[in-house]
Design goal:
The complex is a heterodimer of chains A (125) and B (372). In chain A, the strands form two sheets. Chain A has a six-stranded antiparallel beta sheet with strand order 1-2-3-9-8-5. In chain A, strands 4-6-7 form a three-stranded antiparallel beta sheet. With 125 residues, chain A is an alpha+beta fold. Helix content of chain A is 24%, strand content 37%. Chain A has a single domain (3-117), classed as RNA polymerase II/Efflux pump adaptor protein, barrel-sandwich hybrid domain (OB fold (Dihydrolipoamide Acetyltransferase, E2P)), CATH 2.40.50. The longest helix of chain A is centred in the last third of the chain and has 9 residues, at 114-122. Chain B has two domains: 44-283, Probable tRNA modification gtpase trme, domain 1 (Gyrase A, domain 2, 2-Layer Sandwich); 285-359, Aminomethyltransferase beta-barrel domains (Elongation Factor Tu (Ef-tu), domain 3, Beta Barrel), CATH 2.40.30.110. Chain B starts with 14 loop residues before the first helix and ends in a 13-residue tail after the last strand. The chains are: A alpha+beta (125), B alpha+beta (372). The A-B interface holds A 31, 33-34, 36-37, 39, 55, 57-62, 84, 124-125 and B 1-2, 35-36, 40-43, 45, 227, 230-231, 296-298, 300, 320-321, 323, 328, 350.
Chain lengths: 125, 372
């Protein structure tokens, strides 16, 4: 299984070679509620670690999705743009947001692994 | 996310039930209130349009005004026709200030020996103080602190209500009366805030929990939180005080001139009457309209509105996603001349200008029970 890392803002990134796939966690989608719109960055856009990568809108409010790493967008999830409810039904699988060409692999290794993220989320309750 | 609710928040008589049902609780107007249940806002919204939703609106202010001539007296602080209100009927009206602004919106009903008043939760203390200060000492305001208020809304509301109170089905829209509901002494209003048929039921606070559980056992009924209450009322084109109406908006600007009857326009005699009547006659400089973005992105409260040439002409006061309208919907104020249905607008969302049009209100047709 590819290496998956997590942020304190509830994004995940899964690394395959030089490219990381970014999404939000199940915990995050539960907090957001029903998602009705996503705004995704175009391919070629430069993202910075901790900067805005995408916007996700629930019935109630708009929230930002932050990039777990710095890098260049190579692909946005066109299926997600057409069907934003995938954020709720498949947050950690087909409901990914963007694929990013990772600028600095060290930024990835500094993120939480699955066990650390689980502990972090359990601590929020 | 998930901040613990502050301990100084007030609780309605149904608080424990909300928690038991798994509601997400949020602070609202000083109360710890359910914004949604586990079903989620979309499901709750759609269920209310399809069957029946039960809402806890006990945070709202319920009061009675007693005294001979209470109808005439209250006309000095509201522009509605209250002396002309028939027994058992309810009217939507507003408290105005000397500048023609709106202090709150409310409903007034005529009972046998008093007026029945329901005001917004966030404004209730100031509304009570306002009434006590402005009305003659011979009037007595009785605040009903010991009653909960539940709303049962949706096309199945009448059928469900009839199981507990057969005579409730006979009430026409904007009528009310006292009756036994499930054996309890209640006041039942045929009114609501969703655009659907339905009832608002004032019930003794001590019995409210058991009362709500009885309704929730009915197959058509699901609990509905404040999130869906907001999307339902927005689709119905109904104003939310503090957002679509406030002290800086007048009745003409808010497009609620229909609340001021012919006699009141002729006679005046309410705060801000000169300003309000002049605006109603000549047209206000800006007016509340419905707005539909062309795309899928919602435009929220505070979004700047531009005309087709890019000039700023107003602001959105309520905006979000309309599940029944199946797209983003909003209301806001635009300068007069830009308010015709179909007018092209731009909405500034996250730095980009999104195309939108002025749309007719309501976004979803009302399905009220006709008066009998």
């Amino acid at each position: 299984m590819a290496d998956r890392r997590y942020t304190k803002d509830h994004e995940w990134i899964e690394i395959n070679g030089a490219v990381g796939t970014v999404g939000i966690t199940n915990y995050a989608q539960e907090q957001l509620g029903d998602v009705v719109f996503v705004e995704l960055p175009p391919a070629g856009k430069k993202l910075t670690k901790g900067g805005e990568a995408a916007v996700v809108e629930s019935v109630k409010a708009a929230s930002e999705v932050y990039s777990p790493v710095s890098g260049e967008v190579v692909e946005s999830n066109a299926e997600l743009a057409k069907n934003p409810a995938m954020v709720n039904t498949a947050a950690e699988t087909t409901g990914w947001f963007v694929k990013v060409k990772v600028a600095d692999a060290k930024e990835v290794s500094g993120l939480m692994d699955a066990a650390a993220y689980k502990k972090f989320v359990d601590g929020l309750h | 996310m998930g901040e613990a609710s502050s301990s100084d928040l007030k609780k309605t008589p149904l608080h424990a039930l909300h928690v038991e049902l798994g509601a997400r609780m949020v602070p609202f107007a000083g109360y710890d209130m359910p914004v949604q249940y586990p079903a989620g806002i979309l499901t709750e919204h759609n269920h209310t349009r399809a069957q029946a939703g039960l809402f806890d609106v006990s945070h709202m202010g319920q009061a009675r005004l007693w005294g001979a001539g209470a109808d005439k007296a209250i006309e000095t602080i509201v522009p509605g026709n209250i002396t002309g209100l028939a027994l058992g009927r309810i009217r939507y009206t507003i408290f105005t200030n000397e500048a023609g602004g709106i202090l709150d919106d409310l409903t007034i009903g005529r009972a046998g020996h008093h007026l029945s008043i329901v005001v917004n939760a966030a404004c209730k203390d100031q509304d009570y103080a306002h009434m006590r200060a402005k009305l003659p000492k011979s009037m007595r305001l009785e605040v009903l602190e010991d009653r909960a208020l539940l709303a049962l809304q949706g096309p199945a509301a009448e059928k469900v209500m009839a199981r507990f109170a057969p005579e409730a089905a006979k009430l026409g829209f904007m009528s009310f009366t006292s009756m036994k509901v499930a054996g309890l002494d209640c006041t039942v209003f045929r009114s609501g805030y969703t655009g659907e048929d339905g009832f608002e039921i004032s019930v003794p606070a001590n019995d409210a929990d058991a009362f709500a559980r009885k309704f929730l056992k009915e197959p058509e009924v699901k609990p509905i939180g404040l999130g869906a209450r907001d999307s339902l009322r927005l689709e119905a084109g109904l104003c939310l005080y503090g957002h679509d109406l406030d002290t800086t908006t007048t009745p003409a600007e808010g497009d609620i001139g229909w609340t001021i009857a012919k006699r009141r326009r002729e006679e005046g005699g309410f705060p801000g009457d000169k300003i309000i009547l002049k605006q109603l006659a000549e047209g206000p400089a800006r007016v509340r309209v419905g707005i539909r973005p062309d795309g899928r992105a919602p435009a929220r409260e505070g979004t700047k509105i531009l005309d087709a040439k890019g000039k700023e002409i107003g602001v959105i006061t309520s905006g979000g996603f309309g599940p029944t309208a199946n797209g983003p919907v909003a209301m806001g104020y635009v300068t007069r001349g830009n308010n015709a249905v179909g007018t092209q607008l731009g909405l500034v969302v996250r730095g980009a200008t999104l195309a939108a049009k002025v749309a007719a209100l309501p976004f979803v047709p009302h399905r009220y029970k006709k008066a009998i």
